[in-house]
Structure formats: structure tokens, C-alpha cells
């Protein structure tokens, strides 16, 4: 940023990284961007509804909501269980996007049922403010189940829990095992992740109950056994 020749600059980051599930250092990124006259764009896709007070997202939790040099993008299709997305920013940013954003101008508008569903989901979040904390609790329990089975994982910052399996064939087989137990999981292989870091992405939700977690424990134990990593072999 300091050595750039261009007048304008944009720093873009996930709030919660979509595979590893860790939280971006938003305050440090914002400080660097502001120091060098750059705009900070934060994608709250995996943070909205899960991170911060009432699930308002990572930027709000970091005290950056409403800052004039911060723009937030978010999806309506994850925690809000709808479709589409939104951009939150200063009025001049929104006006510029509406007037000049080609992908906005030449696209079909968001359909009313999707917008209504997202608004209804926000009402649910407002009426049950403990939902985000319950989702994070389930994510932590999932990570503990994976670690307890001998699998490599990471402490989740939100609802995303990675299970690192190394080679693509191991991740694909692990996803098949989970499917056999009625569990749908994400399966990431290169080039989506670095070579040797193929993994499953498990996503928690607030309504997971003990029977769900027991089924997951069984599946993860089988995954660990199939990769030779089981602590109980």
C-alpha cells in the first residue's frame, strides 16, 4: 500500500475465512488501510448470524460498523437461508454501485420471496439472540469431536470447522463416509486449498442436537480409521 503508484486502493478480506474458519484481524487491516488511504472491503458471508452480539458480524464486533472507509458484503444464503446478497456502506458508495456497477445494472433484481425470507430470518435472529452463541458452541463441540478422533482441525471462530486430511483422495473418501451416515459436508481439494491441505468443511448450526453429534462422532471415527489416524485403533 505504501509503495503504490495508483491514487486509490482497496483492501479486501473475508471476515471469517471460508475453509479454515479463522477470523481476520479486522482492526489491524483497517488501521493499515486507513493509514495508507485505502478502502477496506469485508466479506461477512461466514460471520453474519454467527459472530458478535446478536450475530451482527465480525465488523460490528470489531467496532468498525458505520466507518466511512469500510464496506461490507454479505450473502443471504448462509445463516439467513435465502438467496442473493447485499452491500453495506456509506451513501456515496451505494450510490456509485447503483449508478455504475455493471454486474448490478445488467443483472435481474433480487426476487421478492428471497428478500422476504432474508428479512424473516433477521426477525428470527432478533427474537432469539442466543442463536449465534449456540451455533458457535456446536462448532466448538464439532471441533472437539474431530480432535478427539485423532483428526487435525482448528478452533472455530464461527460455524466453519475444518478437518484436514492431506491428499484429495482421503478427503473424497471422508466425504463419502459422512454421506453414508447422512451428513452433508464440504470437500475442498486443490486448487481451492494448497497442495497437501485437502479437507472437509463441517458447518455447525444452532439446532444440532445430541443425536446429530453422536452420528457425527461415529462418522469422524470411521474417517480417522480410514486414514490411519484413529486414536482408538
Automatic annotation (TrEMBL):
Domain of life: Bacteria
Keywords, comma-separated and alphabetical: Aminotransferase, Biotin biosynthesis, Pyridoxal phosphate, Transferase
Aminotransferase class I/classII large domain segment(s): 6-220
One Gene Ontology molecular-function label: transaminase activity
EC number per UniProt: 2.3.1.47
GO biological process, one term: biotin biosynthetic process
Known catalytic reactions: 6-carboxyhexanoyl-[ACP] + L-alanine + H(+) = (8S)-8-amino-7-oxononanoate + holo-[ACP] + CO2
The UniProt record lists the keyword Hydrolase: no
InterPro entries in alphabetical order: Aminotrans_II_pyridoxalP_BS (IPR001917), Aminotransferase_I/II_large (IPR004839), AON_synthase_class-II (IPR050087), PyrdxlP-dep_Trfase (IPR015424), PyrdxlP-dep_Trfase_major (IPR015421), PyrdxlP-dep_Trfase_small (IPR015422)
A Pfam cross-reference name: Aminotran_1_2
Cofactor list: pyridoxal 5'-phosphate
Pathway linked to the protein: Cofactor biosynthesis; biotin biosynthesis
Protein family per UniProt: Belongs to the class-II pyridoxal-phosphate-dependent aminotransferase family. BioF subfamily.
Subunit field text: Homodimer.
Stated name of the protein: 8-amino-7-oxononanoate synthase
Amino acid at each position: 500500500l505504501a509503495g503504490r503508484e495508483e491514487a486509490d486502493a482497496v483492501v479486501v478480506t473475508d471476515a471469517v475465512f471460508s475453509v479454515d474458519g479463522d477470523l481476520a484481524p479486522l482492526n489491524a487491516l483497517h488501521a493499515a488501510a486507513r493509514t495508507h488511504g485505502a478502502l477496506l472491503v469485508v466479506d461477512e458471508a461466514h460471520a453474519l448470524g454467527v459472530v458478535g452480539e446478536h450475530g451482527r458480524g465480525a465488523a460490528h464486533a470489531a467496532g468498525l460498523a458505520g466507518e466511512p472507509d469500510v464496506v461490507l458484503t454479505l450473502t443471504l444464503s448462509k445463516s439467513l437461508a435465502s438467496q442473493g446478497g447485499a452491500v453495506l456502506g456509506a451513501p456515496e458508495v451505494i450510490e456509485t454501485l447503483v449508478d455504475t456497477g455493471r454486474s448490478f445494472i445488467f443483472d435481474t433484481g433480487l426476487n421478492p420471496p428471497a428478500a422476504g425470507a432474508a428479512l424473516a430470518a433477521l426477525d428470527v435472529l432478533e427474537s432469539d439472540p442466543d442463536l449465534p452463541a449456540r451455533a458457535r458452541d456446536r462448532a466448538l463441540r464439532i471441533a472437539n469431536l474431530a480432535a478427539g478422533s485423532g483428526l487435525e482441525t482448528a478452533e472455530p471462530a464461527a460455524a466453519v470447522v475444518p478437518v484436514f486430511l492431506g491428499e484429495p483422495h482421503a478427503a473424497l473418501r471422508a466425504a463419502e463416509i459422512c454421506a453414508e451416515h447422512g451428513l452433508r459436508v464440504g470437500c475442498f481439494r486443490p486448487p481451492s486449498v494448497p497442495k497437501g491441505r485437502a479437507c472437509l468443511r463441517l458447518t455447525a448450526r444452532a439446532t444440532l442436537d445430541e443425536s446429530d453429534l453422536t452420528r457425527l462422532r461415529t462418522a469422524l471415527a470411521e474417517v480417522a480409521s480410514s486414514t490411519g489416524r484413529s486414536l482408538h485403533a
